[in-house]
Amino acid sequence: MKNIAIICEYNPMHNGHIHQIKTIKKEYPESNIIILMSGSFVQRGEPSILDKFKKANIAIENGVDLVLEMPAIISLQSANYFSYYSVKILDKLKNIDFISFGIENEPSEFAETFNLLNQNKEKINLIQKKYIEQGNSFKKSYSMALKELKLQTLEDIILKPNNTLAFQYLNATSSLKSKIKPLMIKRIDGGYHSSTLDEYEFQSATTIRQMIFDNKDIRKYVPHSTNQLINDIVRLDDFSQLFIYKAKILGMDAQNIAGYENGILNLLINNFEENLTKTVEKSHNKRYSKSRLKRFIINYLLNITNDDIKLLDDITYIRPLSFNENGRNIINELKSNKEIDLVMKISNDKELNEQNKRLLEIDKMAYQLRNINFTEKYSLDYTNKPYIKNTLFE
């Protein structure tokens, strides 16, 4: 039986995700699907639209066998860190056969592009570094490097958001010399940044989130369980006053905060305008993308430092959020894996070393920050046990 992993955010889970799960099950009917899912915050630097426990339960109700929480520190980093350390965690499990991810081109075209870029990797990195030092953003510098090497025809493929992450996953498996193989599935939704509504049943998470904020009907585009649990919505703007209090009134230093660069905090303070959405809109430029600014804001609020990032090389803990009977069997197998520490309950962290206790502490703080307006949830991270779906009688 194959174990197939998905690195995901499910923000929220929609029909495109269901398509991926069904495609995996069609190709590998006896497989187990294990997901490493961002919890309270997502990689674009925003709070998850749904509570992580709800997201995990929805996943299990829709064909996933085991949900593992991605450490918050990973979910709040740039694409290369996000992908590398996510794959590193999956590799440590020692039981993953494939990693499945969506791409926006045909798999053969994607693989050919990856091989060509890999052949020119050192040259691209060198030229990209030059343009970054000139004040350009990471993405812009990459684009300029491709043009300088006359590889600009690849840009339409590599710089599509989902393809960018997919390339990073392949880079990570290569760097780690992992035995995990890629399982690429072509996406059939409107694309990561798509915000256009049409009559099809597949829409991007971006579109669906905006529909939720606008109180529009999303039932056509999401599984029933997602639609049922959409409440207690959280936005970045819920942290606006907390940010300005910490940054301007308390004047908390940011020099060792992950993602800090000289001037970035002052830029946000000077441009602060009513809420964080407007502030980011006013502050983003060729050097700082909106996502980078938002990630920095959350890292700053959670006091995630560069020293914390260094701890990721020795991360060992795995926290299951939900599973079915197949997932329970996988967990029992993982108990014999000496490279990982299973955290079934967040209060039971006594066996973790100090470095991993610190990383788990960030997860706790992330949950509390995400639910800052729902104080009744604060204790849930400590008291909640993994949701178990009994599939034997269904």
Automatic annotation (TrEMBL):
Principal location class: cytoplasm
Biological process annotations from GO: tRNA modification
Record field: catalytic activity: cytidine(34) in elongator tRNA(Met) + acetate + ATP = N(4)-acetylcytidine(34) in elongator tRNA(Met) + AMP + diphosphate
UniProt keyword terms in alphabetical order: ATP-binding, Cytoplasm, Ligase, Nucleotide-binding, RNA-binding, tRNA processing, tRNA-binding
SUPFAM superfamilies per the UniProt record, alphabetical: Nucleotidylyl transferase
E.C. code: 6.3.4.-
An annotated GO cellular component: cytoplasm
Cellular location(s): Cytoplasm
Presence of keyword tRNA-binding: yes
GO MF entry, a single one: ligase activity, forming carbon-nitrogen bonds
Positions annotated to bind ATP: 7-20, 102, 162, 187-188
Keyword presence, RNA-binding: yes
Entry-linked InterPro entries: Rossmann-like_a/b/a_fold, tRNA(Met)_cyd_acetate_ligase
Pfam families: HIGH_NTase1
PANTHER family: TRNA(MET) CYTIDINE ACETATE LIGASE
Protein family (similarity comment): Belongs to the TmcAL family.
Chain's role: Catalyzes the formation of N(4)-acetylcytidine (ac(4)C) at the wobble position of elongator tRNA(Met), using acetate and ATP as substrates. First activates an acetate ion to form acetyladenylate (Ac-AMP) and then transfers the acetyl group to tRNA to form ac(4)C34.
HAMAP family linked: TmcAL (MF_01539)
Protein name: tRNA(Met) cytidine acetate ligase
Primary gene name: tmcAL
